[in-house]
Amino acid sequence: MTSDGTYDARGTHATPVPRPAPPRGGAADAVPPRPAQAPGAPPQTQGEEFLAWLRTPRPQAAPGVWRYGHRTRPEQEPEVIPTRQLLTGAAIAFLVGWLVWSLLNNGYLGGWWIVPLELFTPDSWRTSDSKVVNLLVWDGYTLLVVLAIMIGVGKVGRWDEIWRRFVAPRLRVKPPEDPEPAPEEDPAQWPKLRDGGAGAAADRLAADARAGLMRDIDAARIARAWRSVRSGNNSLAAFTDSVVRDGAAACPHPSGDRDLPARAARHDLATAQVRLGTTVDDPRNPYAYRGAGLAVGPNLIGTSLLAVGPAGSGKTGSVVWPIAEALCLQALAGRAAVVVVGAAGAGLGPGDDYDVVVRIGHPESVYDLDLYGGATDPDEAAAVLAEALVGDLVDPHLGADTRRSTTVLAQLLGPYHTVHGRFPSVPGLRALLDGVAEPLDALRKGLQELGHEVMLRELDARARQSGHPGDIGATLADRLALLDRPAFAAFFDTSGRSTPFSLRALDHPVRVRIDLPERGHADASRILARLVLAQFTSSAAAREDRSLFACLVLDDATGTVTPEAVRRIQRLRSANAGVVMTLRTLDDVPRPLRTPLLGAVGCRMALSGLTPWDGQDFAEVWGKEWIEARDVTDRQIIAETPAGKALHVLRRVITGRAPTARAVTVRQVERERWSASELAHAVPPGHAVLSLTDVRGEHAPPLLVDLRS
């Protein structure tokens, strides 16, 4: 950023530019605001609400579980007895115990049950005339026998289960409010800052938190700044002075924003998670996940995410925009850099949520897009541009590449950069690729004046190859002509008259939205999408400081999946970066690249409405699992005698079913986790099946998720 607040090719942010108001009915209006507190609860002040958020437990959980206030469930589902069977069995057990005691007490079973009393007590106790002694000996022994009978029949009748299920919940009183934790354990007292020697900063932050001057994003931003101090990148004195002076507003984002104008999804800045939905209580989901919130964060997006579903299935509103919004919040907290790419008006958030909005083809766009991604090396610029122009034309196998196209472009970009100190504009490069004599002669004359023999050889080689059968230069020129249109005349300028955005800015917590001219320029939009993807993967891997999480959110990846793109995506995990991509169908990806693409991303989402052939690809990548299959055969028992019929009636009353003889066969079988037919027909509208893998290698099996809750 320059001294006057403008944006340069390697800068981070520019002065906020007025943006038009977001259209009504967008993503921000799709979800009603959450109530401030539970119904009937006393209202909380802003400080109390923030402290409650800060102190809410966030236990460690499996990948994808919404950790905010999460309660861990057991791995296996406990066996639940039907209510009718449980109550009937308990009542019959009580009647049996009562009958046994009546028979014993009335002597129908003999006096054997008195023998222990006679063996272990003296005769004087049993024949005493004292009422107290008789009460203690005889009535006490009788009480023990009654208790023994009731314990036995209670265990058989599962009285403890009745107590836990029906009685205990009604007797449970409201637990007292949790007391404030000890200062050394209270996150609101900032114990890590105190232990690190920043006690004055901790006191100021604690006071701002109690006064309601701090928000969740402030806490996340200051925690990020403190980690930078602990790693040695910033000084302790500067951090302490800033916090003591500015309080919760310390260590600001370069834009000065402390929050987004509005939030459409639920976020937890303490764990960097955004909630996408709820895992359905379905037998196909592991019991530990059922009913839990489903959330993603940089630890999962760092393995990249691919969402596939037809138009209207909720890819943009339920997946892309919540993730983009979460990354914008992370950028304001100094933790991430995000680039969001989609068609104009696709519902990717208002312009005020971003630092830079590049509207390609729009005459009022303040920012331009750097066609060469800020590269200064001709070979690097040629490789990225070749991938954008003809990456989709190479052989669609993982070993294919664009080396021929890269060589052709480098033979022109190198000499031009040597003579002019910059790369050519789109019309200039098109003329060179078409072999127009005048610019080529001017370029050759400039190289001769400089005495640059190496670049002269490059230019001569291009001249010899031009016009030969099979020369890729003509194809490059034809593709480049899609960008050399009147609508783009003011864009991709290399003379310095515009304000280009370069993806070299990923070293800084920048928020960028790039609007593609999808309407009327579909082919050009695909070229630009491939260009941004190639520039992002190249810049993210070349960063010196990888502490910031870098993410590219590509709303529609149609035409962008190439062999080189798949290879680059695989390398992003080690660079603390990731890509979020959506497709309407896997048919938009060449058949040889579908399996490599699904293998390159760690998070895969199949939304409702998937076709069976798309479901087959997901079923193959998710594999199979061993399950225990039970084959049950029931044969009804026919009673012949009146006693047998009476017994059958009793069994029907207890179990609610006719008496049967059951034969159970248990065997281990291998079954697909989700079959192609289930993915195509068993996923309800507004739902998706999602598998997750985090950057440490932990994974979650395919989960059925309700994206509307």
Would you give an account of this structure?
It is a single chain. Helix content is 42%, strand content 14%. Among the domains are: 75 residues, no CATH class; 70 residues, no CATH class; 111 residues, no CATH class. It is built from 25 helices and 16 strands. α14 packs across α15 and α15 packs across α17. Strands 1, 2, 3, 4, 5, 6, 9, 10, 11, 12, 15 and 16 form a 12-stranded mixed sheet that branches. Strands 7-8 form a two-stranded parallel sheet. It has a two-stranded antiparallel sheet with strand order 13-14.
Which radius of gyration do the C-alpha atoms yield?
Answer: 36 Å
The dominant shape is elongated
Major beta sheet summary:
12 strands, mixed
Q: Give the tally of β-strands.
A: 16
Q: How large is the share of residues in beta strands?
A: 5-15%
| Secondary-structure class | alpha/beta
Could you list the spans in which at least 5 consecutive residues all have pLDDT below 50?
A: 1-31
Which percent bin holds the helix content?
40-55%
**How far is the first residue's CA from the last residue's CA?**
41 Å
> Mean pLDDT score, rounded?
86
How many alpha or pi helices? 25
Write a concise keyword list for the protein shown above.
single chain; 16 strands; twelve-stranded mixed β-sheet; two-stranded parallel ribbon; alpha/beta; elongated
